């Protein structure tokens, strides 16, 4: 499948379309011609809104049809001005644009010149010599068409980027399905692609899961997930499978990749990273260990109330995160029936409700407790229903991801 052309804005499209494409060949007058000749031309060309004044091939004025006719129909004006030079009603400072000017620049000049260039049009020249005029309405129509093309190209690029991001995540989803008997995964980028990331790896002793929320959403967020994916693959090659060690390895890789070492060594303007939680389950001992960098996770035991897993307040990869920072590693023994749910802050921070406040951690905990006996797929559906009801008509703030399992 061929990747669509990458859009780089209206200027990239307008590089192919220039002022020449708007040029209309229309008659012109010279300073030697009188207003009778102007009247004749306007009478002959009913659609002509502006009449250029040109001398020896060089344009230096524009006569507006409406202004000219309104003046010449006043009492005695024909008698006074018929035989006078046409420059009497000429705009002496018309907008003149070279035929090779790109359309984004044409639009800027038309806007800067004011309404007259939209209503009267502008003069188009080649090597300083008159070749025709451009109409404001044609410029508006052409720019609108180019913007529609740009929008379509952006959508095509995002659609293709979604295919790539889905392919990158698909192996982990397949491994979840093979390893976990009762689980759920909800991954919904705000803009087609996004900055939320998940990974799942099995080995002979159990499994390792990573849920992360990278800086940004849309295309910038998706770029960050590619960096994080590369960091994770490298960490696993070096056998960093303990949650704390894994976050340390991801932190170092992101900081090195983006030049975010420390204040004295900073080599870029970037200050990007992720919130993340690394989960490790040892199958034989039923031990769940985790290290969390600002990621919210809730454990609902089979007996008792739901509680949040302990999380550290330091993010992964950011400039102010030390290169050698060590995230605390926690652990507990899971009991059959325990429910675990991890989510990105697109869930916790989504505004909604009657007061347009965040969904919040307490409300999440309540929803989990209400539906804790449901199979995880049904619990996820109930959670999504509660979340969407809370969101209401509020716009989606961020990418939304949650991952859950019943042990």
Provide a descriptive summary of the structure in words.
The model is unreliable at 1-11 (pLDDT under 50). The chain has 407 residues and is an alpha+beta fold. 38% of the residues lie in helices and 23% in strands. The protein is elongated, with a radius of gyration of 33 Å. Helix 7 packs parallel to helix 8 (218-237). The chain starts with 9 loop residues before the first helix and ends with a strand.
Distance between the termini: 41 Å
CATH superfamily of the largest domain: PPM-type phosphatase domain
State the CATH topology of the largest domain: Phosphatase 2c, domain 1
Evaluate the radius of gyration: 33 Å
Run of helices and strands: HHEEHHEHHEEHEEEHHEEEEEEHEEHHE
Regions with pLDDT < 50 over 5+ consecutive residues? 1-11
Mean pLDDT over the residues: 91
- Read across the widest sheet, the strand sequence of neighbours is 6-17-14-11-12
The count of strands amounts to: 17
CATH architectural category of the largest domain: 4-Layer Sandwich
Shape: elongated
Treating each run of at least 4 consecutive H or I residues as one helix, how many helices?
12
Give helix % range: 25-40%
Q: How many distinct domains? A: 2
Strand content bin? 15-25%
